[in-house]
Amino acid sequence: MPTILITGANRGIGLELAKRYAAAGWVVIACCRKPKEARALAAIRGEVEIRTLDVAKPASIARLKAALGKRPIDLLLNNAGVYGQRGGFGRTDPKDFLATIQVNSLAPLLLAEALLPNLMKGGMKKIASITSKMGSIGDGPGGGGYAYRASKTALNMVMANAAAELKGKGISVVVLHPGWVQTDMGGRNAPVKVGDSAAGIMRVIDGLTPAQSGRFFNYDGSTIPW
Ligand code: NDP
């Protein structure tokens, strides 16, 4: 049975992905900040191990790495994310901006670095990170969401760069836009249901070939400009 490690698995898209991978027979290492409060995650049937991880804290990443030891991981799914401050130009809060970068851009890289030995032992050798079309410069930024947009643009570069560097090791690295999804972050008016987003994300990851490494995908399998 393949093993997936997913961050931010206690709610939203991460929870739905944890449910679906468990239902598909995967071993799911479901990470969240507060396992004791992760009731929906604990209720999932299947092989789900809930582990503590605050992606914003390098020490928490180090503790997770130590706990996992040399265990193989087939797929690392960086899902945890924050939106940060919603204000537009002229309202930038430096602390919030950097905190958003820490979670959305830096943490996925630190986690990939920490878990590389585990991924090398896995059969699938895949790293997928949930980005956003809001980080696409080519798609035409419409204003606002500075911290979030910049953090996802940085995530895209981090992962495109890692794809180039890890190619020789046989590891495929992609970033995925999940759609505008009905979650706490996406809000109730979002057009995409969380189940449809998760199903699409899984389909893209499942079909991922080494030749597609380094690409920016939409959840429906189409590509998005950088
Ligand atoms: P939610 O706000 O519903 O969930 C966010 C998840 O990230 C929660 O599990 C949250 O945990 C976790 N998280 C936040 N900070 C940390 C941290 N420091 N350490 C560990 N976990 C953390 O968002 P979505 O499910 O909608 O978003 C999932 C991903 O999809 C994000 O990367 C987001 O940017 C991206 N995305 C979402 C879109 C949408 O329309 N919903 C559109 C484009 C991209 P906790 O409960 O502890 O806060």
Automatic annotation (TrEMBL):
<dbReference type="Pfam" id="PF00106">
    <property type="entry name" value="adh_short"/>
</dbReference>
<comment type="similarity">
    <text>Belongs to the short-chain dehydrogenases/reductases (SDR) family.</text>
</comment>
<dbReference type="InterPro" id="IPR002347">
    <property type="entry name" value="SDR_fam"/>
</dbReference>
<dbReference type="GO" id="GO:0016616">
    <property type="term" value="F:oxidoreductase activity, acting on the CH-OH group of donors, NAD or NADP as acceptor"/>
</dbReference>
<protein>
    <submittedName>
        <fullName>Short-subunit dehydrogenase</fullName>
    </submittedName>
</protein>
<dbReference type="InterPro" id="IPR052184">
    <property type="entry name" value="SDR_enzymes"/>
</dbReference>
<dbReference type="InterPro" id="IPR036291">
    <property type="entry name" value="NAD(P)-bd_dom_sf"/>
</dbReference>
